[in-house]
Design goal:
Elements lengths: L8 E3 L1 H11 L10 H8 L2 E2 L5 H7 L7 H9 L3 E5 L5 E5 H26 L5 H14 L2 E2 H11 L5 H11 L2 E3 L13 E4 H5 L9 H12 L4 H8 L5 H7 L4 E5 L4 E4 L15 E3 L4 H4 L10 H7 L8 E5 L2 E11 L2 E8 L5 H18 L8 E3 L4
Parallel strand pairs: 1-8, 13-14
Antiparallel strand pairs: 2-4, 3-4, 3-6, 5-7, 6-7, 8-9, 10-11, 11-12, 12-13
């Protein structure tokens, strides 16, 4: 009897784009609550403290700044270093298991060179000292640096501070990240701030499932790029019986949750404005499902600041920024290629809606579409 092999279905670039946009709540705005959206997305990247507000606004049917500020103040959401060693805004529940799960990636980034430079500093002693200081009271980065320098004089103080931040899960406490307020980061341990311990073990299987729910269909390399973890092939293979398998046009094996949305490649995709450092841009090894190679070169700046991006027909077609001129706030859109009249009108409408969220006194005339460059 002949044995026949079945090839996985191939998903085109547009099919991957539409599936990804659906997972990211960018095809249709979501009726979910702020915490539900944060949990679905497994957090939002948040180096820029106010960026998650625009990220949630563009994904939710109804969102006001107080919706997120209140969650930070009541400690049901926190800002903490997680995936790829970057600050993320996540729910308190996700913080407890995500940090132990991605901790190996953070440790690897710190690396043996750090400990050679900090010769004589024992990691366990550093952790004990840092926790004792933070248990007394939340501390600013400057305070922690001073205390570390006093405890270990002559050592590289910035490296000491970074090592402590890697070894001890520390959240950035409000008012950092609260709408309309500013301030330098002030840290508390995650356990103290949330009045709950961190998970006792990593949960790589949950990490993969959650990633696919928000970013799939995806390859093993994609999951590793987003998380910063390595050697996830074993985890994905163990989950294979419960996953669907596809391939992209290059033949790369892709995995997905069976019931996750996969709209048709011709599904309409409205104009959307992504926030700075948006995970929609940064979370795949192969980013062509949302941004072309030329656009990637444009958006990846030398200072590693990822600007707000404009999606037209589901793909990055330009950048946006908020510009203050005197007492006026404007939204500047820089297309990477000429837009049609219809596209310009849609960009202007969506830009005006975003601007009214960011600056309620601004009007549609304050949306500037600059010449393509």
């Amino acid at each position: 009897m002949a044995i026949t092999s079945t090839r996985p279905d191939t998903l085109s670039r547009r099919a991957l784009n539409r599936a990804f946009l659906a997972r990211q709540l960018l095809l249709e705005r979501s009726p979910l609550t702020t915490l539900e959206v944060l949990e679905h997305l497994t957090g939002l990247q948040a180096q820029a403290p106010q960026a998650p507000y625009a990220g949630l606004w563009t994904r939710m049917r109804s969102f006001a700044p107080d919706d997120l500020s209140a969650r930070l103040l009541d400690r049901s959401a926190v800002r903490i270093v997680l995936m790829r060693g970057t600050v993320h805004l996540v729910t308190a529940g996700d913080c407890r298991w995500l940090r132990p799960t991605v901790q190996p990636a953070l440790d690897r980034a710190l690396g043996p060179r750090c400990w050679r430079t900090l010769e004589g500093v024992e990691p366990a002693e550093l952790v004990a000292a840092g926790r004792a200081w933070l248990d007394e009271a939340p501390r600013s980065a400057a305070e922690l640096t001073r205390l570390l320098e006093e405890r270990w004089p002559g050592r590289d103080r910035s490296l000491l501070t970074n090592a402590l931040r890697v070894l001890v899960p520390m959240v950035q406490t409000p008012p950092r990240g609260v709408w309309g307020r500013s301030g330098q980061p002030v840290y508390a341990t995650a356990e103290t701030w949330l009045s709950a311990p961190q998970a006792s073990a990593a949960d790589r299987a949950s990490l993969v499932r959650r990633y696919l729910a928000a970013f799939g269909p995806a390859s093993v390399a994609d999951v590793q790029t987003w998380s910063g973890l390595t050697r996830l092939r074993e985890t994905v293979d163990a989950l294979r019986p419960e996953l669907r398998v596809f391939s992209d046009e290059a033949g790369t094996e892709l995995f997905d949750l069976p019931d996750a949305p996969r709209p048709g490649p011709d599904s309409p995709a409205p104009v959307r404005f992504l926030a700075e450092f948006d995970n929609a841009i940064l979370s795949h090894a192969d980013r062509t499902r949302i941004i072309g190679a030329a656009e990637q070169r444009r958006i990846m700046t030398r200072n590693a600041v990822i600007p707000g991006a404009v999606l037209v027909d589901g793909f990055v077609r330009g950048a946006w920024s908020k510009v203050k001129e005197g007492g006026t706030t404007r939204l500047a859109v820089t297309p990477y290629a000429p837009l049609s009249a219809r596209e310009r009108a849609e960009v202007r409408r969506e830009g005006a809606a975003l601007l009214s969220f960011l600056a309620p006194d601004a009007g549609e005339e304050d949306v500037m579409i600059l010449p393509a460059r």
